Amino acid sequence: MELAYEIGIVSGVLFVVAFGLMNFGVIKAESVLYQVLNLFGALGFTYTAIQPFNPGLFVTEAVWAIVAAFGLYKIFTRKNGPERNLA
Questions:
Q1: Which residue numbers delimit the CBU-0592-like domain (predicted)?
Q2: Is residue 87 in a domain?
Q3: Angle in degrees, CA 9, 13, 17, rounded to 5
């Protein structure tokens, strides 16, 4: 199996785990874990969109990664810090 396929599978799992944990109330969308799972899932799918190039997936996942990174930035720069929002 090619590396891109394996990365795609792991990325999909990361997205589903994040989505499931949030919907079952285990974590919040404002948590570090949720944002990290989304960031790495999006980066993985962005990588898989490079060869062969899939512009729709590439742009969607690149934007998704940027939004997740911004979410982490917000968590780590607020006054109470990330310690209360790890999960």
A1: 7-78
A2: no
A3: 175
- Integer-rounded Cα radius of gyration of the chain: 14
What is the domain extent for residue 13?
3-82
The reply to whether 16 falls in a domain is yes
State how many domains the chain has. Answer: 1
CA 20 to chain centre: 13
3 is written with which tokens?
């590396």
Q: Are 42 and 12 in contact (CB under 8 A)?
A: no
Q: How far is CA 22 from CA 26, 37, 38, 79, in A?
A: 6, 11, 12, 24
| CA dist., res. 3 & res. 58, Å (int) | 17
**Binned average pLDDT, 10 residues per bin, the chain of 87 residues:** 92 98 97 98 97 96 98 91 61
